[in-house]
Amino acid sequence: MCYASRMRAVVQRVNEASVTVDGKRVGGIGRGLLVYLGAARGDEPKDVHYIAEKISGLRVFPNDDGRMSLSVGDVGGAVLVVSQFTLFGDVRRGRRPSFDGAADPGDAERLYLELVGRLRDKGVPVETGTFRAMMLVQSTVDGPVTIQIDSRKLY
What we know:
The protein contains two helices and eight strands. By secondary structure, it is an alpha/beta fold.
């Protein structure tokens, strides 16, 4: 089976968000963006670059007129990135999701860390969950505003 490169991010505007692993808080932010990130088989640095550019420049925060025209950096916000291979759950056959389209864990972790690094290089404060851990994610979604970014749109 052939998989098209397609890193995927689900981005939510939040007033706050945190990640807990085994009862210990490992990451958290106030106002900003909660990003669930999934890497697909065949994803490359260009996919990471595309997603990082979109997240850092995404204008989903309101200006003084209430229009969404400000980025996370414009409002002094932060980003919480949580790895989420289940974004590639395929339920077309049966009721149990298949995750064959998700990247292998080693590749996914490398791409995840590359995305976190690119966002930090852009001056965006970034917190993370724990890769391959069972996490409790809590958030107060603002809006609600939820945007899906898919690097397939790049091609």
